[in-house]
Design goal:
Four Helix Bundle (Hemerythrin (Met), subunit A), disordered C terminus, CDP-OH_PTrfase_TM_dom, transmembrane helix, transmembrane, membrane, CDP-OH_P_trans
């Protein structure tokens, strides 16, 4: 077993229940929430890329990451609550998540002292981890969200990294955090593949 912030999702969803009820009353759709989260992530990423020396933007990134996680949780809750789960919505959710991740991670390349190959490796491996989670469906398993470095965990890790940038902590520590994230991503990839294969497709009964 490996701990992941994703395991706290049920409690987090309980806290979001009042927001969910309000959105449902206003007939907001899950896809609108998904697109909003993606567009806000792109906008914040562009702001970071344009003003990488602005400590306030880096300081605000952990807060934005929390807001993004809330929106990501709400779209799924809203889809279930209003019975609006669709194949298009599922695809949009996966694609939007990867676009948002890239938009918020790549601006770190402009931070002085960041080891660029390490950052690129983290970004690529994060994408591969999520691909493995989706590919588990091909093995007859459910969509895998195993940790220890899933989407929520990466949001936390890069939130911490943003704080280090904001407070101008030496680049040695920034790269150390990235190195730890990289190792945990490798562990996560192994976990998702292993657990997907533990739940193979069941042959149809006659």
């Amino acid at each position: 077993m490996s701990f992941s912030i994703y395991q706290l999702k049920p409690r987090f969803q309980q806290l979001l229940q009042p927001v969910l009820n309000g959105l449902a009353k206003r007939q907001i759709t899950p896809n609108q929430i998904t697109l909003l989260a993606m567009l806000l992530s792109i906008a914040y990423g562009i702001a970071l890329a344009c003003f990488p020396q602005n400590a306030g933007l880096w300081l605000g990134l952990p807060v934005f990451m929390f807001v993004r996680m809330a929106l990501n949780a709400i779209d799924g809750m809203l889809a279930n609550f209003t019975q609006q789960k669709t194949p298009f919505g599922a695809i949009l959710n996966e694609v939007a998540d990867q676009v948002s991740d890239a938009a918020l991670v790549l601006p770190f390349a402009l931070v002085s002292g960041i080891h660029l190959p390490l950052l690129v490796a983290v970004a690529m491996l994060a994408l591969l981890v999520e691909f493995a989670g989706v590919a588990a469906l091909l093995a007859g398993s459910s969509r895998r969200f195993d940790g220890p470095m899933g989407k929520s965990d990466r949001a936390f890790a890069f939130g911490v990294l943003a704080l280090l940038v904001a407070f101008q902590i030496t680049a040695v520590w920034l790269n150390a955090v990235l190195g730890i994230v990289l190792l945990l991503l490798l562990w996560t990839l192994f976990n998702r593949i292993k657990r997907a294969l533990l739940h193979p497709a069941v042959p149809p009964t006659r």
